[in-house]
Amino acid sequence: MESVGKLYGFYDPDEMRAIFKKRTKKMVNKTTTLKDAVSKYLKDGDYIAAGNSAIERTPVAALMELIRQVRKNDLKHLKYGAIGGSPLPSVLAFMSGCFEECDISYGMALEALGISKMARRCFETGKVKVTEWSNGTLAWRVKAAAMGLSFIPARSILGTDTFKYSAAKEIKCPFTGKTYAAIPAVYPDIVFIHVHAADKYGNSFIKGTTLVDVELAEASKTVIVTTERLVPTEFFRDDPLRTTIPFYLVDAVVEVPYGAHPGGMPYEYHMDVDFLKNMLKAAQNEDTYEKFIKKYILDCENFEDFLQLTGGLEKMRKLRQKVLHIDAE
C-alpha cells in the first residue's frame, strides 16, 4: 500500500545533529517573557508542537501568546503537530486560524465535554491540510528524532486507512523479509512545554506523567518552557532525579503561574469545566468564536489579563481546592 499523506517536520538526522551541536551547553540565565520568547523564535512556516497530556498540563499561556503574535504579524504557512493526544492545544490552535497544515491523531475532542464544531469544520472543508497518524506512531516519530534516526519500524498501522493517509512507507526487514511500516522522524521547529518547576537555566521538573515531552525537548530545534514557579538550582542539585528535562535542551524559561488554565495542572489546580464548556459553545460558528478569541486572547495584553477575565486568583483558589478535595468537605 502507498501512503498519500504529506510529510511534515522531517529533516536529515545529520543536519539536525549539526544544529543541536551548536546549542550552548553553558549554564546561562534563560529567563524571559513569553512575548519576547515567541517573538524571538517564531517565524513563517514553522512546525509547532505542544507538550501536554490531553487537557492537563497544556501550555495555554504560550499558545495564547503565539496566537496573538501570529495574528498581529500575519505569519503564514505554520504547521502544527498534535502530538501526544492533545485536544486542548489542538482546539486552540485550529480554531484560531493560525495553522494551515498538520500532523494529527487524536485531538479534536475535549474528552467528555464534546467536540469543537469550528475545529472540525477546519478539516471537513479542507481549510487545514491533514496527515493522519495513530497516537502511537505520532509519538514514535518524535522518538525517532530524539534517537537521531530517520525512522522507526512498526507494524501497528499496516493495512489500515490510517497508514494510507499517513506519510509512512512500507519496507522489508533485512533479517526476516517481513513487511514493516517505516515511521519517519519529526523535528518540530518550536515546542512549548509547561512544567511544575524550573530553574533559571532551564532544568525542568514535571510531576506525574510526561507523555512524550522529554522526547519532544530532545527532538525540537527550540524549546520554550513555561513553569508554574521558578526554583533555585539547589532544587535539582539536592535531588537530580527531579530533572525531567535538562537545561541544555532548553532555550527559554518563562515563569507563568496557572499557565495551563483553563486546562488542569496535576497536583496544582483542576480544569475549569465551565469555561471550557463556554469555549465549545462559542465554537458553534465563526462569528461567535471570533468574538471569543478577541475577548480572551487578542484583546489581552498578556496571560495575567486573561486570568483576571476568568475570575482571577479567587477562581484559581477554588480550582486548586478541587484538586485537594477540599471543595467536597
What features would you describe in this structure?
- The chain is α/β, with parallel strands linked by helices and 329 residues long.
- 36% of the residues lie in helices and 17% in strands.
- It has helices at 13-21, 34-41, 60-73, 87-95, 117-124, 135-146, 161-164, 213-219, 234-237, 273-282, 286-298, 303-309, 312-323; strands spanning 47-50, 78-82, 99-104, 129-132, 151-154, 169-172, 179-184, 190-198, 204-205, 222-230, 252-255.
- The strands form 2 sheets. Strands 1, 2, 3, 4, 8, 9, 10 and 11 form an 8-stranded mixed sheet that branches. The chain has a 3-stranded antiparallel sheet with strand order 5-7-6.
- The chain starts with 12 loop residues before the first helix and ends in a 6-residue tail after the last helix.
List the helices and strands and how they pair.
Blueprint (H helix, E strand, L loop, with lengths): L12 H9 L12 H8 L5 E4 L9 H14 L4 E5 L4 H9 L3 E6 L12 H8 L4 E4 L2 H12 L4 E4 L6 H4 L4 E4 L6 E6 L5 E9 L5 E2 L7 H7 L2 E9 L3 H4 L14 E4 L17 H10 L3 H13 L4 H7 L2 H12 L6
Parallel strand pairs: 1-2, 1-8, 2-3, 3-4, 8-10, 10-11
Antiparallel strand pairs: 5-7, 6-7, 8-9
Helix pairs in contact: 2-3, 3-4, 6-8
What is the structure about, briefly put?
The protein is α/β, with parallel strands linked by helices and 329 residues long.
